[in-house]
Amino acid sequence: MTSTTTSQPPPKLVLDKFIALALSNTPPELHPYFESFKALYTKKLWHQLTNKLFEFFDHPLAKPYRVDTFERFVRDFEGKINQLKLVEMGTKVSKDIDNPQTHLNFLTSLLSRIDTKKSPEAHVLLLATIAHAKLVFGDLEGTKTDMDAAWEVLDTLEGVDGGVNAAYYGVAADYYKAKAEYAPYYRHSLLYLACVDPEKDMSTEERLIRAHDLAISAFLADTIYNFGELLMHPILDAFNGTPHEWIKKLLFTFNEGNIGKFEALAPLFPQEPILQENYAFLRQKICLMALIESVFKRPANDRTIGFQTIAEETRLPVDEVEHLVMKGLSLKLIRGSLDQVEEKAYISWVQPRVLSREQIGGLAKRLDEWVQKLNGVEQRIAAEVE
Questions:
Q1: In sequence order, what DSSP letters do the residues of 208-232 get, joined into one string?
Q2: Is the distance from CB of 41 to CB of 77 less than 8 angstroms?
């Protein structure tokens, strides 16, 4: 009985044909790579072959040949190599595909060939990459769907590769930036920076853009009143020596609750129209930060503050102080109560935050005073015992 199945060419013939075409169609500088591909493939040294492929994909002259090499060569043995490395290769070469639909088809086809259970990290990385592609092409709904699917897997994993985390948090930050949702952008962008080395992985321009966007989101997010993590991050050094350096100063001004410095920097707001447009909100925010600072610098046993004092320290009319304190209480920036009749605020707790050198100096002074009081009490007790 004769079989009617069409036989596939032996793998060696397919390999020889690919290598022969590659050697005839690529620059001489790339030929050693293809010769190495053939040798390593023949010996079934998949790990070494993977590393050599990454070297090839990173070569400046290889860009026009990366997609073809992946589709006609790597796909032949993709099941034999580390799936995360395979996806890293796939996401790298997909950047060379300009047509949006072809780009997405390439990535979704690769996703269909990845086993989520065997390689969940590869699955997350590819989903995040697809989400980013959809974001670039304007499909916000599709982006969110793939982000959620990626997070569903990522949230169950431990010891995740930094590149996988960076891919997820990077696209999440970009998504919330596109939606102008400042607080989620701020959180995800800082998480993204925790997964990369800005000096190595980002250009000077990219670092400045990231620092700028983080600062703007910190200013405009209605739930963020603690800039500590950002103030400690070296990404802010991107502002140094640029026309945007005043934005860095403004961040520290907010953290200190320094209304005088805020008013001194306010004339620069027209350089950032979004800050100028939201001046009223920023003014309220700096007043809240000033209130926090006012409470913080007082001893724990002396946090009953009159409305008149708060008005002077926040530069607000007295009749607006009650609303300001209530806002601080509702945002959980402070805890306590109000006495409208006596026009006093009783504050029992203030939100912890990163301190400037001046604030640390003030704290050290108060600690020193506290120690001196304890020593005085100890001396009196000792004298009474004697």
A1: HHHHHHHHHHHHH-TT----HHHHT
A2: yes
CA angle 70, 192, 331 (to 5 degrees): 150
- Please give the helix or strand (H or E) that residue 304 lies within, else none: strand 304-306
Asked whether 287 and 259 are in contact (CB, 8 A), the reply is yes
**Cα 213 to Cα 119: distance, rounded to the nearest angstrom:** 34
Kindly give the interhelix angle for 162-178 and 182-194, rounded to the nearest 10 degrees.
Answer: 160
Transcribe 236-278 into DSSP letters. GGGGTTSTTHHHHHHHHHHHHT-HHHHHHHGGGGGGSHHHHHT
Task: Convert the pLDDT of each residue in 36-64 to its tens digit.
Answer: 999 999 999 999 999 999 999 999 999 99
At residue 26, the 3 state secondary structure works out as: coil
Supply the DSSP string of 310-347, one letter for each residue. HHHHHT--GGGHHHHHHHHHHTTSEEEEEETTTTEEEE
pLDDT tens column, 141-186 = 999 999 999 999 999 999 999 999 999 999 999 999 999 999 999 9
171-229: per-residue pLDDT in tens? Answer: 999 999 999 999 999 999 999 999 999 999 999 999 999 999 999 999 999 999 989 89
Identify the CA nearest to 49 among candidates 28, 77, 68, 87: 77
State the pLDDT at residue 8.
45
Query: If you average pLDDT over residues 22-32, what whole number do you get?
Result: 96
Q: Give the whole-angstrom CA distance, residue 63 versus residue 58.
A: 8
Phi first, then psi, for residue 345 (nearest 5°) are -115, 130
Count how many Cα atoms sit within 13 Å of the Cα of residue 354 in the half-sphere of its side chain.
14
